[in-house]
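Continuing the batch. This is chain 6 of the set; chains 1 through 5 are on the previous pages. Same settings as before, nothing changed between runs. Recording input and output for traceability.
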Amino acid sequence: MDTAEISYEAALSTYKDMLNQTPVTVGVTKAQLESASRALDQARLAYDSARASLDIAKDSTLPASAELSRLQYEQALSAYESAARQLLYSRTTAPCDGVVTSVNVKVNEPFSPSAPAVTISSSQSMTATLAVTDAYIDFIKVGDSVTAQTSEGNIPGIITEISPEPNPVTGLYSIKVELPNTENLLKAGMTARIAIVTSRSEDTWVLPLGAVNYDSEGSYVYIIDEDNTAHRLNVTTGIYNTEYIEILSGMEPGMTVITSGHPMLADGIGVIISQ
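Output for chain 6:
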């Protein structure tokens, strides 16, 4: 813009000087005057173009300012969302209603992430923790139904959590079971015996768990013939629980099995059946 303005002023000065010269030099001055006029026109065009460019440059700062404002807004929004996320991380929400029985953290003091920060006792449901061996862990999954045998009776429950790794000291897998407590029968610290169904078998033969014996040859039972004589009978067993064991093979319908008092038995010994 400055260069165009100077060129224009120089051309205009030259043009005025030529107009003020004497008539003697009119013939020569006319050609010079025409050249100066053309230079003046060119300088005016350059000046007008530069002025227009300057105006455009000034006007173009408006979109640039808008773009800058938009970038500043996006940066501020990102900073706000990041701060909001950090705020959420600092807030702890109880998973259920209940009464706070212990607080294990203090303000401005470090704490272990593995230790519970707050203990809540809920009257609506209780959580039982148990441990199982690797022999059963593959047969148990979250959502399985269980039965808790307590001093208040049998209470149905559901497995809610299974540890993916065993305890490094005991080698056992930790399992958590949720038990309903709508009647407030369960109290914190109570013990229970948890029955978990790991497998099922339909239409099968079963015997009391104590009726089956084991030795180096395998599993067997004692049966009684018509003469009340005990005979050893090898059998193949299947799944079992705390009361019964499945018999897969070795027995036939109608056999009488000795279920108790057999530690002193031997094949061929006579027995007395007590009702």
